[in-house]
Amino acid sequence: MYNLQSVVQRLEEEGLRITPSRLAVVAAVLDLSGHFSVDDILSQVPEVGRATVFRTMKLLSEMDVLCRVLLDDGSLRYRVSQRQDHHHHLVCVSCASVQELDACIDPEVLNELARTTGYEIEGHWLEFFGRCTACRSDSA
Ligand SMILES: [Zn+2]
Ligand SMILES: [Zn+2]
Ligand SMILES: [Zn+2]
User: Fold this and answer.
1) Of the bound ligands, which one is closest to the alpha carbon of residue 125?
2) Which fold has domain 1-85?
3) For 11-20, which contacts have Cβ atoms below 8 Å and span 24 or more sequence positions?
4) What is the pLDDT of residue 103?
């Protein structure tokens, strides 16, 4: 799991300046458990400007420190990544719990897609929705 020190180290490795505002956003992100919205972070660090919060969270997402999770109701949430690299999520439509998954699209499928469309594929979203084991046993 990430802590303040390891995230700061990641930022430094990326050649990014550690400003007090960035540090405040990182600390707020690590303080929250489960998933959260940009607004949750904004209310944690009222002294930091909105644009800085958005930029920092985007940066942390690109570094795989934060995951972006699309919930079943269409809202976008963030959470601290447990895997520290590219992965996908299983989202429970009943309790909104999120599980991280190793599964990804077969690279052959991506290559084929790039070849047939002429696109240079830069990324993809892949989320799975369903009911978790706890919610399934509740209704049984
Ligand atoms: Zn994740
Ligand atoms: Zn559930
Ligand atoms: Zn993937």
Assistant:
1) 3
2) Arc Repressor Mutant, subunit A (1.10.10)
3) 11/59, 11/63, 14/63, 16/59
4) 86
